[in-house]
Amino acid sequence: MAEGVFRSTVSKSPHQHLISEVDSCGTGAYHLGSSPDSRTMSTLEDHGITDYDHEARKIQTSDFQRFDYIFAMDRDNLRDLQRIQQRAEGKAKLMLFGEFGGKKKAEEVIDPYYGARDGFDIAYEQCVRFSKNFLKETFPDVDP
Q1: Contacts by 18-26 with C-beta closer than 8 Å and gap 24+?
Q2: What digits encode the pLDDT tens for the residues 65-99?
Q3: pTM across the whole model
Q4: Where are the catalytic residues (predicted)?
Q5: What is the DSSP letter of 67?
Q6: Which of 46, 51, 111, 118 is catalytic?
Q7: Residue 43 and residue 11: Cα distance in Å, rounded?
Q8: Which of 37, 40, 47, 46 is nearest to 8 (CA)?
Q9: 111 given a catalytic annotation
Q10: What are the domain boundaries of the chain?
């Protein structure tokens, strides 16, 4: 969901020319090759994001060279990514996506997978807020 929201946010902002590539992946190989959960897709569609297409993949050490930023959705995944980053040489800045929550304390994106449908709406709201705040904080000289 975070990738779809971030892509959409960037495409509707003056930051489009500053972001060249957006991707998402997991730290485990649980759903390799799978499409996003149907509840994720319906949540995105409910908010006008109808062009999102994704196939699950597992993070590679080369991703730390390929990308400037790598966001973890929660602290457990952040720890896993930090271990992978130690083996990788690269420029990527690794952090919790929720560091851009606009609060003093970093938030974790809730994992709605095992919960009720409203969890997907909460995760969507978080991803929108984090995406907008990331762009605002990372590129402060760009007028929204």
Answers
A1: 18/139, 18/142, 21/66, 21/67, 23/63, 23/67, 24/54, 25/56, 25/57, 25/58, 25/59, 25/60, 25/63, 26/56, 26/57, 26/58, 26/59
A2: 999 999 999 999 999 999 999 998 889 999 999 99
A3: 0.92
A4: 111
A5: -
A6: 111
A7: 18
A8: 47
A9: yes
A10: 2-137
